[in-house]
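Same chain as my last thread, 235 residues:
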Amino acid sequence: MLAIFKRELRSYFSTSIGYIFVGIFLALNGAIFSYCTLQQFENSNVSLYFTLMIFAFVVILPLITMKLFSEERKLKTEQLLLTSPVSLWSMVFAKFLAAYTIFASTFLVGSCNFVVLYEYGQPSTAIIFGNIISILLVGAAFIAVGVFVSALTENQLIAAFGTMAILFLMLLLGIVGSYINFTPLRVLVNWLSIFTRFFPFTYGEFSFSAIVYYASIAFVFLFLTVRVFEKRRWE
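reply #2:
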């Protein structure tokens, strides 16, 4: 598993995709941070910054997940992975962990922006750290979705746009939920909503149920990815 993780991590920077992702991520992060905080002066809104970043993830996270398995299939190296002395769970998790490492590292570097806020005021540390934790959890769930979609096709563009569509629908649930009049359906939609679980962290509240929720999403999509390869191994 460690060998696959290291190989995948190196592959991001042996090609341009890793540099493109880091550049786009930090540029968007800086622009959104500046708009929501520095340009708003006393009306700065840290929670809005994190909310907008989640929407930005719909576009930028597929950049690091689209190649994970689709490239292996296109280059005909998938069989080498399937016949290697590594369990399918280890193979899938190693790929996931490599993508998550790139994402988390880049996001944490971008979070150094908050040092600037302490130079001009006293922002709530609990709210900032609560949002950072929630973003890392949301990122894990989103990357797991991307891993699954990448396993379904050998076309990286299809993998990218497919992931974007699923992530957008997941975010859309939180928006349309308030417009549903049928109470049982509204409760179900709000329960599945990314935003419903995200909001407690924006107020600096630690939500154990949200951690379980995001971890469950990541687990389900990684499990589905393993099932895809189990089926493919015996075809």
